[in-house]
Write a structure and sequence with these properties.
The structure is a single chain. With 305 residues, this protein is an alpha/beta fold. It has a single domain, classed as Stationary-phase Survival Protein Sure Homolog, Chain: A (3-Layer(aba) Sandwich). The chain contains 8 helices and 11 strands. The strands form 2 sheets. Strands 3-4-2-1-5-6-7-11-8 form a 9-stranded mixed β-sheet, sandwiched between helices. A two-stranded antiparallel sheet has the order 9-10. A hairpin with a 5-residue loop joins β9 and β10. α1 crosses α6 and α2 packs parallel to α6. The protein is globular, with a radius of gyration of 20 Å. The two termini are 31 Å apart.
Amino acid sequence: MQRKRVLPLATLLLCAPALAAAVPAAAAPQAGPATAPARPLRILLTNDDGYNAPGIRLAFARLTAAGHDVTIVAPLTNQSGAGTKASNAPSVTVRHPEPKVWAVDGSPGDAVAFGLSEVFEGRAPDLVVSGTNFGPNVAGLATHSGTVGGAVAGLENGIPAIALSTGGVAVPDPVTTVNAMGPTLDFAVKLIDRLRSRAGSGPLLPAGVGLNVNHPVIGADGKGTAAGVAATFQDPQPLLKADYTDAGDGTWKVGVKVALRTPARGGDVEAVSAGKIAVSPVNADWNTGPADAAVTRALMAGLRP
């Protein structure tokens, strides 16, 4: 989602205080007078890997243990790569296999739409959390990500949203990636705590702005601590390259490989490659900002049908 890169600097500055949560305690400033704890949040938890995937189940357990009221409303089956897809079928299958869990036979966007309309009917959640995803959602991957798409669906409906992903820029290793979901969710709890403590009685994030969080896999077992946190933008490179082989019968075999270019300075790929947690602001529309709007007006000046 190239749009994330052109959000105004003020947006990053508004988000930046939340990043301090990952600074080691020894480096943090001395705490001031004690204040009343921030209230727990009502969270709609979704993903694109399916309602029973390890990442969303770990997120449910960790966020619930942190005191939040969490309800899973997620796809019934794996919807990786669904992006912001929304179905237009006349009916949808929904299962309610256990308390606090709803499984929607559709995309992450469909799940969030159902959750906001039915599960949270009459009282919207405080936050939509999407993930944690198995594998990264940086650079061009974020554009097509169902995890990010789930967060965008929340933003479209005026709900603050965070997308969480776990993985480096290489092909994810199952064991280490699942192990790294623990540190990912530890950070997510700290991030949410910082957002709600700074928000007070106001919004968790600036209106229309969400956060795309990518946590790297650190250490041989994946359980290591990230090297830091970086406020980033989405690197404009596609990251993956498709390769097609003619099978000779009218079909083509499709292969995909990582094609990493030099990371953009300040981008999410650079941060994750350096072992840092990348936190990029994201919005729910394709507007690129006033500068590009001015360029477009200049290009269109004088044109007539």
